Structures are given as C-alpha cells and as structure tokens.
Amino acid sequence: MHGHEQGAFGAELVFLIPAAAAAAAYWAGTFSSRSRGWPVHRALLFTAGVAAVLATVLNPLAAQSHEDFTVLAVAHVLAGMLGPLLLVLSRPVSLALRTLDVVPARRLAGVLRSRPLRVLTFPLTAAALNVGGMVVMFRTGVFAAMQDSAPVHWLVTFHLAAAGYLYTAVLVGRDPMPHRAGFGFRAAVLIGATAGHNILAKTLYAQPPPGVPQEAGEAGALILYYGGGAVELAVVFLLCRQWYVSTRPRATVASTQYHQ
After folding, report:
1. pLDDT digits (tens, 9 = 90+) for 67-121
2. How far apart are CA 13 and CA 225, in angstroms?
3. How far apart are CA 90 and CA 45, in angstroms?
4. Contact between residue 22 and residue 50 where contact means Cβ atoms under 8 Å apart
5. Which of 17, 49, 157, 171 could serve as a FRET partner for 85 with CA atoms 20 to 30 Å apart?
C-alpha cells in the first residue's frame, strides 16, 4: 500500500537541501552588519520552524504517518500549525528587507504591495485556505492519495505549511504586509477558524477517514484537538497581547491629559 516509501530518502534530500540553505541564510543574515543586532532567538525560532515542517516529509515520521493515523495527526500539527507559528515569530521578511541588496529588497517590497498578495493576506482568505486545506486533506480522496503517492503527500504538506504560515502571519505576524486588518476583525476570524478546526477534529473522532480503525481515528483526533488547541491558544495570547500593547500609548496620553 505504501510503495512510495521505497527509496524515499534519496528523494527527500530535495527538501533537506533548500531547508538547510534557508536556515543557513537566516543565520548569516542574523550576524550580518546590515541586521544591526538582530535577536539570535529569532534565528533559533526560524531553525525550529523549518525543522518542524521538514520532519513531516523525512523518515521516519513521514513513513510512519502512512501507517498510523496518530502519527499523521502529529505531522499535521507540526507542519500546519507549530512550524508556521515559529516561522512567523522569527520575522523572516523583516530580516530579508534589512540584509538584501537594494535591488532585491525593492523587488521584495514590490511583491509585498502586489494585488495578489493583498488578496491572499485578507484574513478571511487566509483562514479559508488554512481550514479548507485541513478539510480537503481528511475528508476527500486526497487522504487516500497521500497514502499511495509521495508527491501528493509532499504537495499536501507544502500547502499545510504555506497556508498555516499565511494564516498565522495575517493574525499575529509583525512582518510588513500589504494591509493589516483591525484587531477586532482578526479576533473574529481567529474564533471562527479555531471553531472550524475543533469541529473537524470532533468529526474525525466520531467518524475517522476511510480505512482508519476507529481507535486510531480517535487517538489522532485527540492529538489534532488538544495539540492544535495548544498552538491556537498561543496565537490567541499573541493577538491579545498585541491588541493590549497597541492601546497602551493612547490610554497613557488620555490619562495624562485628564490629570493636566
């Protein structure tokens, strides 16, 4: 059933090389003279985020995920939720804008202002891509295709990571974006997307995907619910903290004016 595991390690080097190059480039940028004291902990966050996503396509986790639904659930949390959160917290776009030469930096800035990116970074669009990708992964024929085809597995993992990064960046990212929705709107989208993820996990608990034993389906659903919930709670905390910090200067000014 899982013939694509044979010789997979050689193919997976295709992902290992660019991942290592991205991490090396980030560390080089961190210690570049142009970065002016870029925090080292962000380089650690970036490296951990890359590792979390990469682990889902490299053996042994990738091979086991085709045999065990609980391992697939762990892979989903790593690639689609935890990894993207760590990458967003590392602020890679800001570092790139600081360290790139003038021409590449201007081109990157142009991409950030482009109309397609404006559409993709609209909170509802990002949430639909994120939650919708999860539903398609577990509730359509894509799930069976992942079991039989390594390229399909890799494409789904890429979508989960990219959509997870986009969604998290839209809600709590500090990198430059085409536009930044208000905190109230972002909070509403976060509540809706979290509810969608939790509903999916509960339906998987009651009715696992075809071919998945009930016991394994229940265990995997619990990982999605509680593991994913922990990451979602971290996003809630970050959004609330940013919202609170954004109101402090105005509150301080108002208080000063009142006492004067």
Report:
1. 688 888 998 999 999 999 999 999 999 999 999 999 999 999 999 999 999 999 9
2. 32
3. 6
4. yes
5. 17
